[in-house]
Write a structure and sequence with these properties.
- The structure is a single chain.
- This protein is mainly α.
- The protein has a single domain, classed as Rhodopsin 7-helix transmembrane proteins (Rhopdopsin 7-helix transmembrane proteins), CATH 1.20.1070.
- The protein is built from 13 helices and 2 strands.
- Strands 1-2 form a two-stranded antiparallel ribbon.
- Helix 3 packs antiparallel against helix 4 and helix 4 runs parallel beside helix 8.
- It is globular, with a radius of gyration of 29 Å.
- It starts with 9 loop residues before the first helix and ends in a 7-residue tail after the last helix.
- It holds the Pfam family 7tm_1.
- InterPro entries: GPCR_Rhodpsn, GPCR_Rhodpsn_7TM, Protea_act_rcpt.
- It is found in: Cell membrane.
Length: 350
């Protein structure tokens, strides 16, 4: 949102004065915060202390959990901001930090899910060709560092700009709800900033991730591994759900809103603000990705919540063993009874 205090559009002003919308957004953030901290706190404990060895997939999951926990720690500040009627009281630097955490979580999550998808693609579709590369933990660590570097370089303007905005007529100071046009030097810089966020950090990873999971499902369908195929389909469904429900609306509306505001003086800010809430839901869905992506994580989680750690196939084998053992005991018993009978002398008739 670009503008100054004397030229704020009616859509933005109505949002700031809409108490019901503010409460609804705050409630969503509170629910997300609770689920985020509980689910990702447990996930982080399992991934760090209970999962070994630390495979590249596990390292990617730790990176994803770290960004989710950072978001969970930042959301209470956003909740307080909403309850105070969009009045930010913590200063410009804190506003920049909170905004950076929001968008870093989104785009690091996008890139990390792409990395997990690529790792599964190489491991299932090309298991021999890339076996040595996938085993190196250093490759996963370097990939995570490059992800953070790329995201922070794109979001650099958010770190160097005062994102607070004084609205005297409402007696509030907003945080990243009204952006100044001079945040970037010209329209070309704004276009490059938005292109990098929407296309480089979202659309390209989304296409790569979709390709990887479709290829994995096709490969497993050819190999007729029913259980593994079902799990891969569930994982693909959850990942694509996170992209379409959490990331796509926010990025599409951000691009649309900015273009409308820059060139047509129109606004769809209310829709964009609500999409920002849904973008936080990814931190609640990520633990499900770990469950379907890591066999070790599933095993440890089942142990912790006292669920049966055997798979359905193992359970059937166990039942078959018990049935065979029972039949064997019965057969042995019958043999013993037969031997007893045979030892009794037969009576002869006169």
């Amino acid at each position: 949102m670009m503008g100054n205090s004397s030229k704020l559009d009616n859509a933005t002003l109505s949002l700031f004065m809409n108490v019901n919308a503010s409460i609804a957004i705050s409630v969503i953030y509170m629910i997300v915060t609770t689920i985020n901290l509980v689910g990702n706190g447990l996930s982080m404990w399992i991934l760090i202390f209970r999962t070994s060895p630390k495979t590249p997939s596990i390292i990617f999951m730790i990176n994803l959990t770290l960004t989710d926990l950072a978001l969970g720690a930042a959301l209470p500040f956003q909740i307080a901001y909403q309850f105070q009627g969009y009045n930010w009281k913590l200063g410009a630097k804190m506003c920049s930090v909170m905004t950076l955490v929001f968008y870093t979580n989104m785009y690091c999550s996008v890139l990390t899910m792409m990395a997990i998808g690529i790792d599964r693609y190489l491991g299932i579709v090309w298991p021999l060709l890339f076996r040595q590369i996938r085993k190196r933990k250093s490759n996963a660590v370097i990939s995570c560092i490059l992800m953070w570097g790329l995201v922070l370089s794109v979001l650099y303007p958010l770190m160097t700009t005062d994102l607070t905005f004084d609205i005297p007529e409402l007696n509030i100071i907003t945080c990243f709800d009204v952006l100044k046009k001079d945040m970037l030097p010209n329209v070309t810089a704004w276009a490059a900033f938005l292109f990098s966020m929407v296309f480089v950090l979202f659309l390209f990873p989304f296409c790569v991730t979709t390709f990887c999971y479709i290829s994995v499902i096709r490969k497993l369908a050819e190999d007729s591994k029913t259980t593994q195929k079902k799990r891969a389909i569930r994982l693909a469904f959850i990942v694509l759900l996170v992209f379409t429900l959490c990331f796509a609306p926010n990025n599409i509306l951000l691009l649309t809103h900015t273009v409308l505001r820059l060139f047509y003086k129109k606004s769809i800010y209310m829709s964009y603000k609500l999409s920002l809430c849904f973008s936080c839901l990814n931190s609640c869905l990520d633990p499900f990705i770990y469950y379907f992506a890591s066999k070790d994580f599933r095993h440890k989680l089942r142990q912790i919540i006292n669920l049966q750690s055997l798979s359905s196939g193992d359970s059937m084998k166990m039942e078959q063993r018990e049935t065979l053992y029972s039949a064997h005991c019965t057969f042995e018993g019958q043999e013993r009874e037969h031997s007893k009978v045979s030892l009794v002398p037969k009576k002869t008739t006169a």
